[in-house]
Specification:
single chain; 418 residues; alpha+beta; 4-stranded antiparallel beta sheet; 11 helices
Length: 418
């Protein structure tokens, strides 16, 4: 319904073991989430009504449930016309009883949402939901869905973002399948399951993708669209954009920055083996022995995007992760000791932030230790407004993206511009 960013949480107890790092970041995430809850939209958006401007209009998205009988839609149209509200588009979502009608409306700037809702309910509408829309919503539904399918076809990491833009404000979680089970967790049927505000879809890799939208029940039509995107992803299999950046560092070394996924798992583990315990501890905030256990999750396209820095010989010497985390996005870097302080981290971070901006993220944050001066310097080097939160030696730095230009990201397959 909306274009608000809701990302795939990567702090999932089903996806990786509990560690001191997870407990630390979970504490920060809980506190931050309290400031960014998925609150259900009210009947009015709560924003103050703008000063009336002669000839000005406001766009609205609205859903209402009506009886599936002759004349019901005509009554709604007449009620909206009585408020001088134009219907720009209409989609119908048939239910077992009744129909959910989804409208894109254009009304006078001085008309509040409550006035539109009252008119609709007087004409027989029920369970009406309304919020502000913008120019992006003027794209018709078939065109928008085809665009989401094209993005998904190009990049496996696009599936969570495509589902989010298809379904609006929602929480998406990925749960892996048990290693010894032939079915998805919980015995989920192949076709998935829909239960009010929760839909569960069988993931291409055999697990479950759970989508929850607490403020608005999903319709069978939305369920069918989401299932079609997941089936497309399953048919195409693992895939990444092939773009890469060839760079020469200031001290003369040639490197390549490219996208990475679980197929780079062994090379990433080899890099871990070359990293000192101190470097691994700065990155993972926990026992060094647990570091390898995170890699399969971090490289998975369901949880975000990964960039790898590769030498001329093909060895991976740095990894940068952009991780979907609820309403927020985390960035994380690891550069092996021999390649630190050469600008590798800055190259990774700049491209990750560009990808986040293209994906519509308003900010990114990094969880590190207050003593990690290299990461602090890299965040400052972005030239963006920064917020700092410190507790017991753990530092969370949040960069507000604003109008960041996604330079350097295009060739690396960042295709999610809203």
């Amino acid at each position: 319904m909306t274009r608000e960013v809701t990302q795939v949480p990567h702090h999932d107890a089903d996806c990786r073991p509990a560690t001191p790092w997870q407990r630390i970041t979970e504490t920060f995430r809980t506190r931050r989430t309290r400031r960014h809850e998925h609150a259900p939209p009210t009947r009015d958006t709560g924003s103050p009504a703008p000063e009336p401007v002669p000839g000005a209009n406001t766009l609205w998205r609205m859903r209402t449930t009506v009886q599936d009988e002759p004349g019901s839609l005509a009554a709604l149209c007449a009620a909206l016309a009585g408020q001088r509200v134009d219907i720009l588009s209409l989609q119908t979502h048939p239910l077992a009883e009744g129909t959910v009608d989804e409208f894109l409306l254009r009304g006078p700037a001085g008309l509040p949402a409550a006035g539109i809702t009252a008119a609709v309910e007087s004409a027989g509408g029920a369970d009406t939901w309304i919020e502000r829309a913008d120019a992006h919503d003027l794209v018709d539904a078939p065109t928008r869905i085809l665009g989401l399918a094209a993005r998904t076809a190009l990049d496996a990491a696009e599936l969570p973002l495509a589902l989010r833009q298809l379904l609006g404000r929602c929480t998406i979680r990925s749960q892996p399948a048990p290693a010894d089970a032939g079915r998805a967790p919980g015995g989920l049927p192949v076709e998935g399951a829909l239960d009010g505000t929760v839909m569960r879809l069988r993931a291409p890799e055999g697990g479950v993708i759970t989508v929850e939208r607490p403020y608005l029940p999903f319709t069978p039509t939305e369920f069918a669209r989401a299932r079609a995107l997941v089936e497309l992803d399953a048919r195409l299999g693992p895939r990444l954009p092939q773009g890469r950046d060839e760079l020469t560092l200031a001290e003369g070394s040639d490197i390549t920055v490219r996208r990475a996924d679980t197929r780079d798992l062994e090379a990433a583990r080899a890099m871990h083996e070359r990293c000192s315990p101190h470097t691994l501890k700065l990155r993972y905030h926990g026992p060094v022995r647990d570091a390898d256990r995170y890699l399969n999750h971090l490289l998975g396209p369901r949880h975000g995007r990964t960039l790898a820095v590769q030498t001329a010989s093909g060895r991976i010497v740095g990894l940068g992760h952009l991780l979907w985390d609820g309403d927020e996005t985390e960035v994380a870097l690891l550069v092996e000791d021999a390649w630190q302080r050469r600008g590798v981290g800055a190259q990774l971070l700049g491209r990750l932030v560009g990808m986040a901006a293209e994906a519509g993220c308003s900010s990114v944050y990094a969880v590190t230790q207050a003593s990690n001066t290299a990461m602090v310097a890299a965040m400052r080097g972005l030239g963006l407004p920064l917020d700092y939160q410190v507790e017991e030696g753990t530092l969370v730095i949040t960069a507000r993206l604003g109008e960041v230009v996604a330079s350097g990201a295009e060739g690396l397959g960042s295709t999610s511009a809203p």
